[in-house]
Amino acid sequence: MDVSVAIDAMGGDFAPAHPVAGAVQAARELGVRILLVGRREEVAAELAKQHHAGLPIEIVHASEAVEMHESPVTAFRRKKDSSIRVAAQLVRDGVAHGVVSAGNTGAVMTTVKMICGVLEGVERPALCAVVPNLRGPSVWLDVGANIDCRPEHLVQFAVMGHLYSREVLGIPTPRVGLMSIGEEDSKGNEVTREAFRVLKEAPLNFIGNVEGRDIFNGKADVIVCDGFIGNVSLKAVESATEAIFHFMREEISKSFMAKLGYLLAKPAFRSFRKKVDYAEYGGVPLLGLRAAAIVCHGGSSPRAIKNAVRVNLEFVRNRVNDRIRDEILKLTAEPRVPLSGDTARAGE
Fold it and tell me: Quick one: 29 and 61 in the same domain?
């Protein structure tokens, strides 16, 4: 299957330089057709700095760009020709199979949702992060798209995370855990306790509640929580990782023996950095939309953009959206697993 990916060339802290360089890497290494969306002159100037002769890369003009500080809703209403909007329209119209952006996360989510729509049966799309653990990668959602959630939303996140883990990460029977303040069934707030009850009856490999310490110990392959908890936790983890590297550099620089030890252990340090480097995972997919949309870190390097395109390819080729829609509709139709707000309340 020949796949085309639209890249928001004006999104991110280092746009258009990093998105363009990442697009060239993706086209060369992955063989994917790239549509670079942004101000033609600026994008062309960056592209001229790259060795791109013969690569399947095109520029699609968009006269506006959404800034990182802008209100997502205001930007959507006022900037009709923004790069992320034009990229989303390319997906909606079937010109591109997916979209990648390192721009304003809220604007990306709002724009793709409004332009492409939500999958049938899905009430809320979710941001899904892939994080390393002691056994391999795990899926963590929601990490910022939905601040306030109802139990049925958490159940849908579990289904979407299960499918993404199975189809993209290749885990045959993902273990699904619900983030709470204790492992016991009774722990958590009203929302998590109700979600727990429903998940126990769902056709998933639900292992019960998990805690914050379980994010990286490999206990679960899919970790489900609302966007408030997920976003705060994820940013705390990112900050802690940066602090650890900073402390290590400080200690290594204090003595000759420490420097010598670092040189001997450099391959191990390089391997460790690769495991925790967000650039290796590319970006976080927006699950539940009628589009393969990958949102990257604002400071994404060209390598991160390339890997985001790789994730987009896997998403499209494994028909993740089709599978999410089918599974959500199947669960919604199942009388013992209420997923809509009305049916959940009717059973109280």
Answer: yes
Same domain, 188 and 237: yes
Domain CATH for 181: 3.40.718.10
Contacts of 88 (CB under 8 A, 6+ apart): 6, 99, 111, 112, 115, 116, 291, 293
Measured between its terminal Cα atoms, the distance across the chain in Å is 48
Q: Is residue 69 part of a domain?
A: yes
Residue 141 carries which side chain, given as an amino acid letter?
Answer: L
In whole angstroms, give the CA distance from residue 306 to residue 326.
30
In this structure, what are the phi and psi dihedrals at residue 166, rounded to the nearest 5 degrees? Answer: -75, -45
Confidence of residue 339 (pLDDT cuts 50, 70, 90): very low
231 within 8 A of 145, measured Cβ to Cβ: no
Q: Tell me the C-alpha distance between 166 and 119, whole Å.
A: 19
Q: DSSP character for 226?
A: -
- Segment 37-41 shows an average pLDDT of 97
Q: What pTM value is reported for the model?
A: 0.81
Contact 165/221 with Cβ under 8 angstroms?
A: yes
Tokens of residue 320, six digits: 């993740």
Residue 211 structural domain: 126-277+325-346
- The answer to whether 305 touches 50, Cβ cutoff 8 Å, is no
Per-position b or e across 221-242, b if 16+ CB within 10 A of its CB: bbbbbbbebbbebbeebeeeee
